[in-house]
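User: Here's a structure from my thesis project, written as structure tokens. My advisor, Dr. K., wants to see whether a designed sequence matches the one we expressed. Can you design one independently, without my sequence as a hint?
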């Protein structure tokens, strides 16, 4: 990812471009064309990721009314096809697509949040919880079938997970023990992990995110961001 100025961004009803990378929607699938330079070791990332939803949902959820932060699970169930030219890599599997929007910086509205999504026999389960700055909490637990129909369920107990290498706290909702199978990304304020848990009486493997916005707003972390997300003039 690269931060770019306003002039490098373009949008139409079915496309969104940021510099040389862009997204386009053809009515049945979302094509994400990547053309970026990775950091901290510079290398080309170029290729296409295609997301094919089984259904599109219509409901967005307000996470923090003060700053009108909203989260929309656009495609809870989807197939993802990855075809990269640099590096040469191809695979496909189960996937998901969502979006967030708000009227203020995330760190002003939230202390931290935990998010998880996993495949179940009849669809996908999503867990989303956050600690707001005003001390209140948000807890969402929902199931989506392949047609996009949603059912909520009572969130199971919160189970602590081991901290990341950067000491970011992790936790997940689970009816039984839970553990981290693999840490995919470990940053000073964020982690992405594969977690095993149990939901609705069944074992489940979750893609899991932990975000510490107290960490994110620290001056030393802000100074580190350009080394992981370059800032281009064009």
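Assistant: Designed independently from the structure alone:
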């Amino acid at each position: 990812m690269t931060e770019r100025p306003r002039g490098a961004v373009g949008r139409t009803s079915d496309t969104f471009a940021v510099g040389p990378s862009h997204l386009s929607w053809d009515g049945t699938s979302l094509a994400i064309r990547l053309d970026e330079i990775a950091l901290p070791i510079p290398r080309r990332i170029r290729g296409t990721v295609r997301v094919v939803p089984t259904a599109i949902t219509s409901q967005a959820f307000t996470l923090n009314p003060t700053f009108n932060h909203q989260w929309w699970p656009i495609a809870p169930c989807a197939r993802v096809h990855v075809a990269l030219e640099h590096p040469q890599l191809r695979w496909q599997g189960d996937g998901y697509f969502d979006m967030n929007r708000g009227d203020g910086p995330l760190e002003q509205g939230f202390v931290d949040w935990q998010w998880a999504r996993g495949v179940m026999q009849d669809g996908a389960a999503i867990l989303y919880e956050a600690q707001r700055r005003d001390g209140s909490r948000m807890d969402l637990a929902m199931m989506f079938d392949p047609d996009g129909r949603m059912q909520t369920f009572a969130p199971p107990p919160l189970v602590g997970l081991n901290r990341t290498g950067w000491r970011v706290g992790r936790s997940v909702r689970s009816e039984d023990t839970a553990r981290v199978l693999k840490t995919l990304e470990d940053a000073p304020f964020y982690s992405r992990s594969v977690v095993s848990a149990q939901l609705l009486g069944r074992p489940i493997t979750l893609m899991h995110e932990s975000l510490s916005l107290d960490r994110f707003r620290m001056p030393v972390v802000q100074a580190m961001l350009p080394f992981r997300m370059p800032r281009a003039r064009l």
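When you compare it with your expressed construct, this may help: The first helix runs from residue 106 to 109.
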